Amino acid sequence: MYQRTFRHANLWGLLWRSFFALMGVVVLTTILLLAFGQDYSSFIRILSDSLLYFLVYKIVISLMKKQALSIRSVAKSNPKKLDELLKISGWTLLTAVVATSFSIFLLTLISFIPNVFEILIPYIEELAVGDDTSLVYLFVIAVIAAPIVEEIVFRGYIMNKWIDKYSLKKGIIYSSLLFMFFHVQSFFIPQLLLGLLCALVYVKFNNLFYAIFTHSLYNFLVILPAFLVPNDGDIAVESLLALSEELPTDYLVFSAVFIIGLLLILLLFSKLFRSTKDQSSPYVENLYH
């Protein structure tokens, strides 16, 4: 007999188990890097991060089985419809465009405040140069591993619990904020938009696959420029430093794209929320239908 709601799902158990899994993977990664050196760093990162995601996945599944929570009712393996996937793809594309233009919009705002811009130059340079993350790593982790496991954790487990414990609105917002704080390197706003979109897609269709598809497609669209255009850190730094002297026209264009796109996304989110506001959690909907 399955639990009728996710209300009493154990979050602390998920937290401390995941923490110990993270510590174990960090130790293993350190040992491998010391043993094989930086020549194999990309492979080691893929291995260690994939292992961490696998462990977190197993933790969630184990907790659900232990608490008599229906895995089938979280995921819902009903047939996928092409028209729904195309609709979701359009929403995801809009979100990705807004997310990628947000950083330029932020830089445009900062450029009008010279003192603040100068203070932030070291951090901006670091972001511009980035690291030597391989494209294979980005694809394996960002497009495959992360969307599957993070959606199971943040939407399938945490959001279902908070919807059943508090309300649909609070569950969507709280889980999206938590998702955002776990991705602080993305200036918050892009990951908040992605979290809200995945949450609303999951609630609207009661199908976790659609949330995973949304997350995966979004990440692919965001990292696509890295596949198409080589990253030249020196050129990026020079162009950023020039912002304090003269603002390029394309920055204003991208800023306008961000503002218009953000308004469209807010309208979309409002429409999606209105269409689902009387629902129970996806878990409850799937369990009883």
Secondary-structure map with pairings?
Elements: H1 11-36, H2 41-66, H3 71-75, H4 82-111, H5 114-129, H6 135-165, H7 168-181, H8 189-205, H9 208-228, H10 233-241, H11 249-276, H12 282-288
Helix pairs in contact: 1-2, 2-6, 4-8, 4-9, 4-11, 5-10, 6-7, 6-9, 7-8, 8-9, 8-11
Structure description:
The protein has 289 residues and is mostly helical. The protein is 80% helix and 0% strand. It is built from 12 helices and no strands. It has helices spanning 11-36, 41-66, 71-75, 82-111, 114-129, 135-165, 168-181, 189-205, 208-228, 233-241, 249-276, 282-288. The two termini are 16 Å apart.
State the order of secondary-structure elements, H for helix, E for strand: HHHHHHHHHHHH
Average pLDDT confidence is 86
Number of strands: 0
Total count of helical runs of at least 4 residues: 12
Structural class: mainly alpha
Poorly predicted runs: 232-237
Provide a concise account of the structure shown.
The chain is mainly alpha-helical and 289 residues long. Helix content is 80%, strand content 0%.
What key attributes describe this structure?
289 residues; globular; 0% strand; mainly alpha; 12 helices
